[in-house]
Amino acid sequence: MTRSSSAIAAIPCSIAKLGRDGMHYFFGYYNKSTWNAQGTQILANRVPYMDRDLTPELEAEVGYFDSVGGDFHTIGTTSAWNWQMGCQLQWLEGQGKRQVIYNVRHTTPQGKYPNFGSVIHDLDSGESRTLADPIYSVAPDSSYAITVDYRRLYITHETIGYAEIEGEKLPVEHCPADDGVCRVDLDTGDLQVLVSYDELKNFHYRDSMANAIHWVSHIEINPASNRILFLHRWTERVEDETCFLHRLITINSDGSDMRLLECSDHPLPQLAEDFDPNAVGTYDYEKSEYQISHPLWKSDDEIIVWGPHDGEIHYHLYHDAPNGKVSVVGRGILTENGHMSYSPVNSRWLLTDTYPDAETNIRKLLIFDTQEERAIEIGEFYTSDLKKENRCDLHPRWNHQGTQVCIDSVHDNERQMYIIDVTPVIN
């Protein structure tokens, strides 16, 4: 795919590196802000290496920076993490407290997913408490979180799962009726299955689901904390991500009123016995014409996502309603899959990135002006030749004031976090 160069301008923006102590820093995904509400503290993970293959014994420090140029403060450690999503570290500020939550590995089995749990840490008291189960996404009001089985993710989509035993992927049932999208009460720790994999399979059933393993990822909760989106995925060949099939689904926070917004079921010649999954490039999956990825709420009832609709793949904006309207965002300009989010203070501005150019290994960081229909390039970043499991996507994230952006990058041959001032673009 190509971009319309006439619709893309470049505006210089200042950039500052957070880590300055010879260690490597990263945050992970694009779907939550690294900053606290006041913009004075920035969450991060710290490790002594840039691209290690992950095993259950490897630990990362969990903590925060005071500000750009400030010291890093460690609040704990975890061995339940990956390079793409970190340990799901995120702020819990919906109830007026300075708390964070992150995933950990249990030393003794607990909860529904025995070897994995989560920790809530209070920055004011310094005290922590442990929950029996891990979390994926936290509701903005901080009352509950949604979670899934990270062991299942390690089998189906290794880059976002956790290993239980070094070198082994323990078997799981393909489509169980007692597991699926789960809700965790952050006060009591109680867990309930909102929608099972068996229920998902039988919801607008497709023949391609019959012999497939099923899973859920990209779970997001709307600003009102009453509606949840996720991607339901299934495949008969987990080794080849271009064989993944996708659906965008929403439910109420109690599991009711399930809606199918998009389905990209399609023929899969890759399932032929003589197909070589090793022939698939690192980013072929992200560039698939059938890929549904990176959904995020724009408002309580609007969802931005990269994916196909009516035979065309674009950034699409969905209205979360039966037969809801679907519109294209950035037609002819935003022509590549990326990690996108709207400014928290002005939805005129859509932040996104690109995957590496096949020839130059350059990733672009963009802000799309939805009012003037133009993209502004605010940075180019070289990425070294890392494997899929330990690659470093930019995963751009806004601060709460909509004036700064935080990215992860390896362009300096270090895995580091950088803060970019975008006021020259938005003012």
What does this structure look like?
- Mean pLDDT is 93; it is low at 1-6.
- The strands form seven sheets. Strands 1-26-25-24-23 form a five-stranded mixed sheet, with no helix packed on it. A four-stranded antiparallel sheet has the order 2-29-28-27, with no helix packed on it.
- It is globular, with a radius of gyration of 20 Å.
- The chain has helices at 150-156, 197-202, 423-426, and strands spanning 8-10, 15-17, 24-26, 42-47, 60-65, 72-78, 90-92, 99-105, 116-122, 128-131, 137-138, 144-147, 180-185, 191-196, 213-221, 227-235, 245-252, 259-263, 293-297, 302-309, 312-319, 326-329, 341-342, 349-353, 362-369, 374-382, 397-398, 404-409, 416-421.
- The longest helix has 7 residues, at 150-156.
- It has 427 residues and is mostly beta strands.
- It has one domain: YVTN repeat-like/Quinoprotein amine dehydrogenase (Methylamine Dehydrogenase, Chain H, 7 Propeller), CATH 2.130.10.
- It is built from three helices and 29 strands.
Summarize the entry for a quick read.
InterPro entries: WD40/YVTN_repeat-like_dom_sf (IPR015943). The protein is mainly beta and 427 residues long.
For the structure shown, list the relevant keywords.
single chain, mainly beta, 4-stranded antiparallel beta sheet, 29 strands, Oligogalacturonate lyase domain-containing protein, WD40/YVTN_repeat-like_dom_sf
How are the secondary structure elements laid out?
Elements lengths: L7 E3 L4 E3 L6 E3 L15 E6 L12 E6 L6 E7 L11 E3 L6 E7 L10 E7 L5 E4 L5 E2 L5 E4 L2 H7 L23 E6 L5 E6 H6 L10 E9 L5 E9 L9 E8 L6 E5 L29 E5 L4 E8 L2 E8 L6 E4 L11 E2 L6 E5 L8 E8 L4 E9 L14 E2 L5 E6 L6 E6 L1 H4 L1
